[in-house]
Amino acid sequence: MSNYQICSHCVMDTKSDPFIRIEENGKCERCNMYEHTVAAHWNHGRGHEKELEALLVKIKKAGKGKKYDCLIGLSGGFDSTYVLHMAVKEWGLRPLVFHVDSGFDLPLGVQNINAVCNKLGVDLKIAKIDPEDMRNFQLAMFRTGLACLDIPQDHAFVQMVEQYAVDNGIKYILNGENISTEAYTNPAYWSTIYGGSTTDTVFLNDILEKYSPVPLKNYAFTNTYRRKIWLPYIEGVKVVKPLNLIPYDYEAIKRTLFDEYGYIAYPQKHFESLITKFLEAWWLPKRFGYDVRHHQLSSLVVTGQMTREQALERLSNPSVSEEEGREMFKQVAEYLRISESELQSYFDMPLVKGSEYKHGNSWLINLGVKIMFALGKEKRVRK
Length: 383
Prior knowledge:
- By secondary structure, the protein is mainly alpha-helical.
- It has helices at about 30-40, 50-60, 80-90, 105-120, 130-145, 150-165, 180, 190, 200-210, 225-235, 250-260, 275-285, 295-300, 310-315, 320-335, 340-350, 360-375, and strands at about 70-75, 95-100, 125-130, 170-175, 240.
- Helices cover about 50% and strands about 5% of the residues.
- Strand 1, helix 3 (about 80-90) and strand 2 form a beta-alpha-beta unit.
- One of its GO terms (molecular function) is transferase activity.
């Protein structure tokens, strides 16, 4: 890549994010934004004891007299697992654990979910996405030529967790999102150029009309209005992120989860799902040059949990071997009920820009994100 640049402080670079600016001090705009707008108020989770206590009082009050006082969507991933651990062992909450089975769960993820839930003695509700709907939606996404191929799974996760809370009168959803390991989000470039918003139903319906020959029968959709207005202000269901209110040390927590439950950490974030692992470790780096490790590892670097040298060493090797990548390729083709040559044709097709599809009010979504950040409701760095 001509004019290639990499941040002198983290490992964000112009290959994974061509829009990023490396400023005069050698740092990228994300690092400067983190230092000036995030680090001070977050303080690595320290000093938020009163805020956490007030939140726990509200959760327990809302759940008084009910079997459950909160809902935790558990993917089997590291962050949601630690939220569950803290909720039961440290905060005295009574969560219902909700897992969405997309058909892509990997055995280690299932093992981790069962081990933690069984040891804690919590109720686990497993909801399955209609397999035909999921297959048709996922295949339609591959046919688009876009990068945002994890939308069918991610959209369903959000909708099903939130709707279950509404249907069962649970007023608080505990979310594992956190600054400590997720200070930097996916580059905006990924969604603005070769993708679209996960909750833009105009965009999603356009794709389904073009590429899904069979209408989805049971797949339920959500949207930004429903999530940001209807859910909290009409239904009174709040999505909260308590991990930002406590110190969060990845390596120490990994040891705790292993010692307590035999939880085995994944070699990379989001590797509990076959489709996500395949996309993030193989498809996106090879087809688009997107390596999610740049912003994932940069988050650990700027929060002091990994050195820049360690991150660069990690990046010097691919996420998975070529052999494992091709095996996942075969598994995904089998899941979609198509030949490997057909899946290869989607990989080889020209890159398609998101602007080739219809979109809703994306400007309104972007404005909402800016307002949420200004109000302190969105605490991560989005660029």
